[in-house]
Amino acid sequence: MPLSIVRTVADLRAQVTAWRKAGESVGLVPTMGALHAGHLSLVTLAKTKAQRVVASVFVNPTQFAPHEDFDAYPRDEAKDAGLLESAGCDLLFAPTVAEMYAPGFSTTVTVSGVSESLDGAARPGHFAGVATVVSKLLLQCGPHVAVFGEKDYQQLQVIKRLVADLDIPVEVIGAPTARADDGLALSSRNAYLTPAEREAAPSLAAALRDAVERLRDGVAVDRVENTGRAAMERAGFSRIDYFEVRDASSLTHLGPGPITGPARILAAGILGKTRLIDNMAV
Amino acid sequence: MPLSIVRTVADLRAQVTAWRKAGESVGLVPTMGALHAGHLSLVTLAKTKAQRVVASVFVNPTQFAPHEDFDAYPRDEAKDAGLLESAGCDLLFAPTVAEMYAPGFSTTVTVSGVSESLDGAARPGHFAGVATVVSKLLLQCGPHVAVFGEKDYQQLQVIKRLVADLDIPVEVIGAPTARADDGLALSSRNAYLTPAEREAAPSLAAALRDAVERLRDGVAVDRVENTGRAAMERAGFSRIDYFEVRDASSLTHLGPGPITGPARILAAGILGKTRLIDNMAV
């Protein structure tokens, strides 16, 4: 089946309504485009959960700070559409900024708690932008399930929280992070890395893997975090935003001693001019 | 048909889903209970717009400030249920606070601009509480139309704004304010008035009617506002929150000269221990 592309909420709703009337379930995979194998694995997972899959491509301006890479963020719709079609996606929703934010737009969805530390501290306003645009996409499309990558683990928890809190009738599913053979988490921003930086980048995943093992061995949280930050420094990260062991769902601090329940290690920092993030389950 | 009462989102959704599957349209009338003829007129209007009507009764704690009348707010579910049944309402959704706000609840919907002045200034946090709970009620019920009273005119504009901005798939309808024979806008809070205050209270509506006429005669906005505030003082209001002429949809300031387009006059103040609000179209 060829991939259809729609650019308005009205056209999106017309197609989804037709599917629902025909008794077909619908999955949504929200993305910012610049698709890679990680995104395609989300589509593949969505296809196992719903009969029809919609992917959205929208580089959302409100989740970028003024100094961040909104303008430089890679965009290639033709390539994205080809990849989505090959992955079996049924519909691409690619709205303009004007379609998403009409004149007079003035509503914000904020999530306290889970969004406040880590990327919420490093990128003020980021999660309000994410929470608002994801609320819109879910309500525009009205899918049965929506799939998000665990690569943005804090984002996934923020979305699960807002969907539960606002009673948005959708099942939110997290998909495992896709990685290169050397362990580097796939990311659209990896395209910014120089060859030398690309060679150093897998050390972030290696530091996380090492931390997982040490936590399982009963090493104290504060020691594991210190070792992880040191590994990021040695790898050449010029800024370390965090390397932290957190509760797996509330993202509250754990430690300083050994962990006793489900935990997640989350790390972020700047390598060269590129901000990399990654995380792993313990 | 006897009125059914449900207390959980799951039960509400089961009933609404059954109606939708049967091809019936659904209207929602959100209320805080203590129902009077004004609320029943919303139900009557909803019945002209949808085949099934759900009323919710939920005194929402998050839209009351700590010093306000949350605990004292009148509650009489049996009486409310009887009135709703007589008005032809099909279902009463009466959730507990715990059903609406589970442990860990941390999401807020805020609307800038239209919510910031008037009651937004007089009651900090009020409209964030309203916007969040109304978002929840709309998403819990999933109605085709939702009816709100023009009595809370700023609230109606806030809700129209958030529904458009978040793409909640519902038509929001405003219903005219129901009034006593002497002009006083019906309100659950009128029950707080002493006999003497009740006698003075219609002067608020009289001042608004007078202001409408003067604006139509071309009198300048600032003169009309001053006259209105003076009338409220003479009527015994101990605090005047506002008496203002605003743009009918954005609620931005108009004046100081005569108006040139659709306007709304909004007024609020405290009479005795009771806060009264009212508004009229110009």
UniProtKB/TrEMBL annotation, chains A, B:
Top enzyme class: ligase
EC number: 6.3.2.1
Catalysed reaction, written as an equation: (R)-pantoate + beta-alanine + ATP = (R)-pantothenate + AMP + diphosphate + H(+)
UniProt cross-references to CDD domains, sorted A to Z: PanC
Pfam families tied to this protein: Pantoate_ligase
Keyword Lipid metabolism on entry: no
SUPFAM superfamilies: Nucleotidylyl transferase
Keyword terms, alphabetized: ATP-binding, Cytoplasm, Ligase, Nucleotide-binding, Pantothenate biosynthesis
Keyword Nucleotide-binding attributed: yes
GO cellular component: cytosol
NCBIfam families attached to this UniProt entry: panC
Name of the molecule in the record: Pantothenate synthetase
The species this protein was found in: Phenylobacterium glaciei
